[in-house]
Amino acid sequence: MTVRVRIAPSPTGNLHIGTARTAVFNWLFARHHGGKFILRIEDTDTQRSKSEYTENIKSGLTWLNLDWDEGPFFQTQRLDLYRQTIKTLLDQGLAYRCYCTTEELEQMREAQKARNEAPRYDNRHRNLSEEEIAAFESQGRKPVIRFKIDDDRSIIWRDLVRDTVTWKGNDLGGDMVIARKPENEGEEFGQPLYNLAVVADDIEMEITHVIRGEDHIANTAKQILLYEALGAKVPEFAHTPLILNEEGRKLSKRDGVTSVDDFKKLGFVSPAMANYMTLLGWTHPESEELFTLEEAAKHFSLERVNKAGAKFDWKKLDWINSQYLHNIPANELVDLLIPYWTEAGYEFDPIADHPWLEELTQLITPSLTRLSDAANESRLIFGESITFAEDAIALLKEEGVKDIIQGVQTEIENSSGLNEKDTKDIIKQITKTLGVKKGLVMKSLRAGLMGELKGPDLIQSWLLLNQKGWDKLRLQQALNQI
Ligand code: GLU
Fold first, then answer.
1. Residues 247/184, Cβ–Cβ less than 8 Å
2. What does the pLDDT look like over 92-105, one tens digit per residue?
3. Which site among 168, 301, 361, 410 is 20 to 30 Å from 99 CA-CA?
4. Is 82 strand, coil or helix?
């Protein structure tokens, strides 16, 4: 048997982090078993589905390196299959037309509420006579199609994550709607609904394992009944835990991040994100925490997926991200940082300044946790003029500092393009001629060049400023403060 799994997002929003994590597990499972990973876009809700979301889903999966082997398939292009499936169920008497009006359904629910019962459809149109049907039709009522659900049934399956799951037929809300009312003249029935379309697709696409979020458990019970009714082999099911926020509630819009794009904008890199998402509910057999998707695929099994919700741990994600960031070569990392410098409003020419930006990247890399940290970490480097912090001004005013700054200034005036040795020689020279401590020279230089007493490596920063000619300008500014 070839393993065939799928990710089936609805394009009603950007690629959601939960969907992306489900995609990761499906991908890992497919790759582990040498199977196929299929992308299906569930766009039957034409009101809420948008092509820009489909694009976002595709680009998000691509960004995470979750390549799919088949698809994308679009449910809106497969309506004939669903219609055919509904017809089969109708012909076999396993589904029927229900003519209830919205008001009747509402009254039914109110009455159930008054009796303290859970709301459900009471299957009242399951056995309509020909005359009753004719009467409803002549009133101009349009029917939905309902699939019969046996209240006395127990639906039991061995979930690959949760072990034995049991659902009672009478907990499924009564006979389920599988197609809406017809909208156009001459149509036998309207838009096919989620559970029907999913089962029709999963059968036709020969899906062997349905791996999806635990919020679909009740759907699984209904879907198993549909598989049985259609005489199809029931696939294996695995329900993955929800992603919870740090308070233990379902990660939601209120947490400020819901889509893969949100994480991308925050400055997480794709291999770190994929790595972290794998850990959201799965543990490596050797408890390793840093691995590529390919490495994880070698060890992946659904038995190691937890039943309990997966708590989102920002600290761990940050740690994983920094590990990846620090290992990206500067000539690649620089291009990932450029958008953040641009956003921060720093002025540079991405082509002409590329070698300089690469050196800057090398300088700040050890302090980066997220790509977005680049803006702050290089704040003191960009620009010919700076704002001096109060403690820097105070230092500049200390005795002897003016001479140091002036001394350095004279040295730079007489040289073109400093290298590391030159800067060190200048510092040595000043220390000697002015008879001051090296520490004071370093501090004065930091205050004069950077405007603050703390920051990235002084010599490397100076070299960057020197290439731009900004060191001279900044030292003059420093002298003006004194
Ligand atoms: N379209 C469904 C969703 O986005 C897919 C559920 C499934 O995998 O069957 O939640």
1. no
2. 999 999 999 999 99
3. 168
4. helix
CA–CA dist 102, 191 (Å, integer): 17
CA distance 23 to 38: 10
Per-residue model confidence (pLDDT) at position 416? 74
Q: Nearest Cα to 20, choosing from 370, 361, 346, 280?
A: 280
Query: pTM of the predicted model, to two decimals?
Result: 0.93
Reduce the DSSP state of residue 241 to 3 states and report it: coil
101 backbone dihedrals φ, ψ, rounded to 5°: -90, 165
Quote the CA–CA distance of 59 and 75 in Å, as a whole number: 19
Are the C-beta atoms of 230 and 208 separated by less than 8 Å? Answer: no
Check pocket membership of 212 for ligand 1, CB cut-off 6 A: yes
Domains parsed from the chain with CATH numbers:
1-68+241-327 (3.40.50.620), 81-193 (3.90.800.10), 330-377 (1.10.8.70), 390-481 (1.10.10.350)
- Which residue puts its alpha carbon closest to atom 10 of ligand 1? 9
Instruction: Give the per-residue pLDDT at 253.
Output: 77
Question: Is 222 a known active-site residue?
Answer: no
**How far is the centre of ligand 1, averaged over its atoms, from the C-alpha of 227 (Å)?**
17
pLDDT at residue 255 in the model: 83
Q: Give pLDDT, residue 129.
A: 97
* Chain segment 205-245, per-residue pLDDT in tens: 999 999 999 999 999 999 999 999 999 999 999 999 999 99
- Cβ of 10 closer than 6 Å to ligand 1, yes or no, is yes
Q: How far is the CA of 213 from the centre of ligand 1 (A)?
A: 8
